[in-house]
Design brief:
Number of strands: 2
Largest sheet: 2 strands, antiparallel
CATH architecture of the largest domain: Orthogonal Bundle
Radius of gyration: 18 Å
Number of helices: 6
Order of helices and strands: HHHEEHHH
Helix content: 55-70%
CATH superfamily of the largest domain: Winged helix-like DNA-binding domain superfamily/Winged helix DNA-binding domain
Structural class: mainly alpha
Distance between the termini: 54 Å
Number of domains: 2
CATH class of the largest domain: Mainly Alpha
């Protein structure tokens, strides 16, 4: 029996492949980069779903589509953090728990960024 991936894990792996490239990738190129036991159709399905969600752009390349991420890795994760925060009514409690879990290095980086972005 194969181990089941957490929801979104395969999408994250596909996005990592796209972020690592300097040019759009076809499903075959993504499959090759994943170097796993996935079917070509599985990779196509994941890319299509990412395109439908607006997370990747696609353009025609011969008979296939080529895909590229619409956001950088950093933009993507920052947006996920904003959406997660927006999903709760108690932002202060969530932010407090988040900050409590940061390393000293990340806390210092956050303090520095907040100092630059005072409103």
């Amino acid at each position: 029996m194969t181990e089941r991936r957490p929801i979104g894990a395969l999408e994250a792996q596909v996005l990592e492949v796209l972020w690592a490239r300097s040019a759009p990738a076809t499903p075959g190129e993504v499959l090759q980069a994943l170097d796993g036991e996935l079917a070509y159709t599985t990779v196509m399905t994941v890319l299509t779903r990412l395109w439908q969600k607006g997370q990747v752009a696609r353009s025609k390349l011969g008979r296939a589509f080529a895909y590229e991420a619409r956001q950088t890795r950093e933009e993507f994760f920052a947006e996920r953090m904003r959406l997660t925060l927006a999903a709760t009514s108690d932002h202060r409690a969530v932010l407090s728990r988040f900050v409590d879990g940061l390393s000293a290095k990340d806390t210092a980086a956050l303090r520095s960024l907040l100092g630059r972005h005072k409103r």
